[in-house]
Design a protein that fits this description.
The complex is a heterodimer of chains A (164) and B (65). With 164 residues, chain A is an alpha+beta fold. Chain A is built from eight helices and seven strands; from the N terminus they run H-E-H-E-H-E-E-E-H-E-E-H-H-H-H. Chain A has one domain: Beta Polymerase, domain 2 (2-Layer Sandwich), CATH 3.30.460. In chain B, 11% of the residues are buried. The chains are: A alpha+beta (164), B mainly alpha (65). Chains A and B meet through helix 1 of A and helix 1 and helix 2 of B.
Chain lengths: 164, 65
C-alpha cells in the first residue's frame, strides 16, 4: 500500500489534488482493529473552485501514469481507490484538520478519529453505527474535541441516542 | 436474553480474551494491519464471490505492504 500512498502524495505535490486524507474503513483501521474492506476511500479537496466537484482532471492525471478506472474506483498499485470530493462542511473540516502520520516510511494523511466518528454518525448506516461502537471501545480520542465537532455539525442527538 | 449473572465463567473468560485480542489488534502497526486486511480479503473472497457479492484481494506484494 506504500506505493499507492506515494502516488497520492505525488498528486498532491503536483497540485492535481488540493489536499487528501484517508477515511472510510481504512481510515478507521488506523485507530481500531483491522476489518474487512475492499477499497481505500480517499477524501479530497479539489484545486478548482466552483460549485461543481469534478474529478475528471484527477482521473486524467492518473490515466497518464497508467492507472485506470474500474467503475467508481481507480486501481493504484493493486489497491482500488475511491476518490470522494469533500461534499459538505463536516468533510471539509475533517480534511483541513486531518493528521499527518507515517505509513512505514511514507508520510500520509488520515482523518482524525473524532471526525471519522462524526462522519459515521452523519451517514448513519448500520455498519457506520457499528464502527462508532468499535471506536468508543478501542480508539483513543479526545472527547472534548469530539463533542465540539458534533455540536458544530448538529450531530449531538445521534451521539446521545447511541449512548443511551 | 442472558443476564450477566447467567454467563458461565468459562465463557466470560473467552469473551475477555476476545476483548484483549481486539485491543492488541488495534495497537498493531499500520503495515501489520494491512497484512491482516489482505488475509481477511483472501478468506472472504470465495465466500462472497459464491454469493455474487463484490469482493477483491488487493494485489500488493509483501515488499509493498
Amino acid at each position: 500500500m506504500e506505493k499507492t500512498l506515494q502516488v497520492l502524495n505525488s498528486l498532491e505535490c503536483n497540485g492535481v489534488l488540493g489536499r487528501y486524507a484517508i477515511g472510510g474503513a481504512m481510515g478507521a483501521t488506523f485507530y481500531i482493529e483491522p476489518f474487512l474492506t475492499f477499497d481505500l476511500d480517499v477524501f479530497v479537496l479539489l484545486p478548482q473552485k466552483g460549485p461543481l466537484l469534478i474529478l475528471t482532471p484527477l482521473y486524467e492525471a492518473l490515466r497518464e501514469k497508467g492507472y485506470r478506472e474500474e467503475g467508481e474506483y481507480v486501481n493504484i498499485e493493486g489497491v482500488p481507490v475511491q476518490f470522494l470530493p469533500a461534499y459538505n462542511l463536516l468533510l471539509e473540516e475533517a480534511l483541513t484538520e486531518a493528521r499527518t502520520t507515517n505509513y512505514d516510511t511514507t508520510p500520509t494523511r488520515v482523518l482524525r478519529a473524532e471526525h471519522l466518528i462524526a462522519i459515521c454518525l452523519q451517514t448513519g448506516r448500520d455498519k457506520d453505527i457499528d464502527r462508532v461502537r468499535l471506536f468508543t471501545k478501542e480508539a483513543s480520542f479526545d472527547m472534548e474535541y469530539l463533542i465540539a465537532v458534533l455540536k458544530r455539525h448538529g450531530l449531538e442527538d445521534a451521539w446521545q441516542h447511541l449512548n443511551k | 436474553m442472558a443476564t450477566p449473572e447467567q454467563i458461565n465463567p468459562e465463557v466470560e473468560k473467552l469473551f475477555l480474551a476476545k476483548i484483549k485480542r481486539r485491543h492488541l489488534l488495534a495497537a498493531m502497526s499500520y503495515p501489520e494491519k494491512v497484512r491482516a486486511l489482505v488475509q481477511l480479503q483472501r478468506m472472504a473472497y470465495p465466500i462472497l464471490k459464491n454469493r455474487n457479492k463484490r469482493a477483491c484481494i488487493w494485489q500488493i506484494d509483501n515488499t509493498d505492504i
